[in-house]
Amino acid sequence: MTVPTVRPDVNPAWHLYPIRLNLESLSADRGKIFRALRAENIGVNVHYIPVHLHPYYRDRFGNRAGEYPIAEAAYARLISLPMFHGMSDGDVADVITAVKKVLLAFAL
């Protein structure tokens, strides 16, 4: 798993906390990891489907999967962890514990 990094000259808004799954070292795809985290009561989400795969662009311009492989590969690896104003330290610890548990369960 790769977590976000912050460059010294940047002050991010942190409205999302995406992790990038290292699928080569896991026996599951993003969907299975997503479902396992949800089963651990962690409200993960998937953000930002590549623009060319949105229905509007598919229908209007005839875009298809496979046309932008780098964007699609990134999309297949990303999961957004919960991040909200009211999170307690305990909530953060629960997320960390669940992510470690799930990733260890699917580690190759």
Give a verbal description of the structure.
- With 108 residues, this protein is mostly helical.
- It has a single domain, classed as Aspartate Aminotransferase, domain 1.
- Helices cover 38% and strands 7% of the residues.
- The chain contains four helices and two strands.
- It has a two-stranded antiparallel sheet.
- The model has no long low-confidence stretch (mean pLDDT 95).
Summed up, what is this model?
The protein is mainly alpha-helical and 108 residues long.
What structural class do helix, strand and pairing data support? mainly alpha
H-E order: EHHHEH
Q: How many discrete domains?
A: 1
Q: How is the largest sheet built, in terms of strand order?
A: 1-2
Note the main sheet: 2 strands, antiparallel
CATH superfamily: Aspartate Aminotransferase, domain 1
The helicity comes to 25-40%
Strand content: 5-15%
**What is the name of the CATH architecture?**
Alpha-Beta Complex
CATH topology group: Aspartate Aminotransferase, domain 1
What is the overall silhouette?
globular
